[in-house]
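Bench log, entry 3. Co-assembly request; chain sequences pasted below exactly as received.
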Amino acid sequence: MEQTIIVTGGAGFIGSNFLLQWLATERTPVINLDKLTYAGNLNNLESIASNPLYRFIQGDILDRGLVRELLRRERPRAIVHFAAESHVDRSILGPDDFIRTNVNGTFSLLEEARAYWTDSSEEDKKQFRFLHVSTDEVYGSLAASDPAFSETKRYEPNSPYSASKAASDHLVRAYHHTYKLPVATTNCSNNYGPYQFPEKLIPLMILNARKGKPLPVYGDGKNVRDWMYVGDHCDAIRTVLAKGRVGETYNIGGRNEKPNIEVVETICAILDDISPHDPVMPHRQLITYVKDRPGHDRRYAIDASKIERELGWKPRETFETGLRKTIEWYLHNDAWIEGVTSGSYRQWIATQYSV
Ligand code: NAD
Ligand code: DAU
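Structure output for the full assembly:
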């Protein structure tokens, strides 16, 4: 096998942060297989586009022939699987693509990985890894007094998105149990940071606040998410790839539980400080409570003690440092914002927030 790794979904938010970090730290060859849906954006990867260690292939993980040929030709030592439909609200409006990519796509990739791995030498077999990037949402919703999710928490997915990710996790588990494919799965909490598509809470609030548009908070604003700076998540994935035990799952989280309203108010306060010439000041006047998301999970919280204890990983950023960094990034990257807020993005905002 070669040193090369294949990343799926590397033009998305976390995948692109992972590729940038990979080439800055590991400096070994990496191939990005991405279909370029609305969420895939090659502008995220401009700074590495001509790096000789990086190659981009536009393609669908469901294209078995393409994946087979790629594995045969490149003989990668690992697949890091990010590609997915990732937005809960979109899964509520139209679940089809979530089942197609997250369930059938992961199945296709597993089948091709299994065929490739089965035909490899014994030494190569030991080296190979299939790392599946998943979410804490598969565990369901917590009450205020419940303990944080551990890796043994029962799966109770509540949205079409989380159900599709849960199905993919189960397939990955089954391929290890049945065929001994050397897999590992990570289940991470809510990410934020540079290059996040502004359909998700934090970038949506930053962009709307800067333009003087309403900040739509679902329900009573007291739903809790456990926030993780994307660079720390990528670091954890690299750690699991290098040192994780085969067949294991690792929860990733930063002990940053916050009610949504507190997140939005903190964004407003930081913007008051660093962007005082925006059209509406103070920004918090823009907060608008809107109808709740159907089936909205109340609270997520991650117990990350397994990865901390076994692999020595710990997040570097606190919520305060990570959020300020993120807001500053959005303030200094107008061209990127302009690129993602045209066309289909405008249509999505009009559909989602029209009532
Ligand atoms: P994203 O929506 O920003 O990016 C997804 C990427 O996958 C895009 O580049 C898209 O073009 C690509 N893609 C979609 N369908 C494809 C297909 N059929 N074939 C090839 N490429 C395809 O997602 P993200 O937020 O970066 O999330 C990446 C992964 O991490 C997902 O698996 C998600 O479930 C998981 N995750 C996300 C978070 C989060 O907070 N964003 C937290 C935990 C886990
Ligand atoms: O927990 C990990 C998950 O986090 C990932 O698996 C998903 O891919 C990712 O999208 C994210 O899911 P959430 O649904 O938690 O993220 P989102 O940014 O959509 O919403 C965060 C919280 O903010 C949630 O409670 C809903 C609320 N919200 C969201 C939007 C977009 C609002 O109140 N208003 C909004 O306009």
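Residues 86-88, 135-137, 189-190, 200-201, 204, 216-218, 223, 225, 260, 293, 300 surround DAU (ligand 2) (CB under 6 Å). The chain is about 45% helix and 15% strand.
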